[in-house]
Amino acid sequence: MKALVKQKAEPGLWLMDVPEPAIGPGDVLIKVLRTGICGTDLHIRAWDGWAQQSIDTPLTIGHEFVGEVVETGRDVADIEAGDLVSGEGHLVCGKCRNCLAGRRHLCRATVGLGVGRDGAFAEYVALPATNVWVHRVPVDLDIAAVFDPFGNAVHTALSFPLVGEDVLITGAGPIGIMAAAVARHAGARNVMITDVSEARLALARKVGVSLAVNVAETPIAEGQRALGLREGFDVGLEMSGRPEAMRDMIANMTHGGRIAVLGLPAEEFPVDWSRIVTSMITIKGIYGREMFETWYAMSVLLEGGLDLAPVITGRYPYQDFDAAFDDAASGQSGKIILDWTV
User: Fold this and answer.
1) Residues of each annotated binding site for NAD(+)
2) Which annotated residues bind Zn(2+) 1 (predicted)?
3) Which among 258, 256, 263, 259 is positioned nearest to 241, based on CA atoms?
């Protein structure tokens, strides 16, 4: 089968013929239909410091996908050939304290699909049945392909109650924009999003944010005043990993404000802990999705009319992966899809 492989420990990716994956008694074999390009995939392609420390070559990359089940292991129940599925990309041990307590998203031994084991940028992918999400209601294939990052957005956005609240989102990448759409749909009063990319701020406006602010030109405090807020934002969603974004968010929160942090910084940085303490601000780190509560929430949100179509800005045949990756790395796009049916 064809697969997109990190074949060598150097920049680049290789489209290659590799063996079709075998499945065990508890596994599912899936014919991949579409995949989404993630920031993790961009790091692997660029072969940056993180990738050099995290990836063993050769490796089939990719973890955002939708596909059709073609075969199930003998112990698999409730999943059948022909089912349309996506996959939870965090594979857990099932034996640690958190796994046994039903908190699988907190497993200390998590292995990432397309990072620690061969992934979904291929014609077929194999997954444990416990990591397979069956789409029981109709869903657009492009949206189904990005359930993984959509889940990051939902997990972050729904960490705190949003009804009637004023929400600040720093970072208008695809996940930040999806989080903004979720916050609006979930009943937030105001949703302000910040970035330095006008193209991405324009995408955020399409999903209905109250205000999209280019912080290279306008400070957050000015946006706060434009919305008529007197005491600051109630909820913050930090999606950028930028030190200045986190510091500005803390400075613009109301007393008792709550911040969920998904953005992953490249290195340590100082924050105003005195402000956090005296303003009694709650900060919660987010990684991945709650298994599978977040997935249920995603499906229900889509059933309820949440529209993520504006977030998808490009689709390419998998053979044109270089152009697709360049688009995704431009900083001007939303989610980029690879089509594996052509």
Assistant:
1) 175, 195, 200, 262-264, 286-287
2) 38, 63-64
3) 263
Indicate the annotated binding residues for Zn(2+): 38, 63-64, 93, 96, 99, 107
Residues taking part in catalysis: 40, 43
All structural domains of the chain, each given as residue ranges with its CATH number in brackets, are: 2-146+308-339 (3.90.180.10), 153-285 (3.40.50.720)
> What is the rounded CA–CA span in Å between residue 100 and residue 107?
9
With 0-12 / 13-18 / 19 or more C-beta atoms within 10 angstroms meaning exposed / middle / buried, residue 325 is buried
Q: Mark the binding-site residues, compressed into ranges.
A: 38, 63-64, 93, 96, 99, 107, 175, 195, 200, 262-264, 286-287
Percent above pLDDT 70 for the chain: 100
pLDDT tens, residue by residue, 115-137: 999 999 999 999 999 999 999 99
Per-position DSSP letters for 103-162, written without gaps between them? -GGG-TT-EEBTTTB--SSBSEEEEEGGGEEE--S---HHHHHTHHHHHHHHHHHTTS--
Structure confidence at residue 266 (pLDDT): 85
Residue 335, pLDDT score? 98
Look at strands 253-261 and 233-238 and give their pairing. Answer: parallel
> 3-class DSSP state for residue 202?
helix
Given this model, what pLDDT does residue 106 score?
Answer: 96
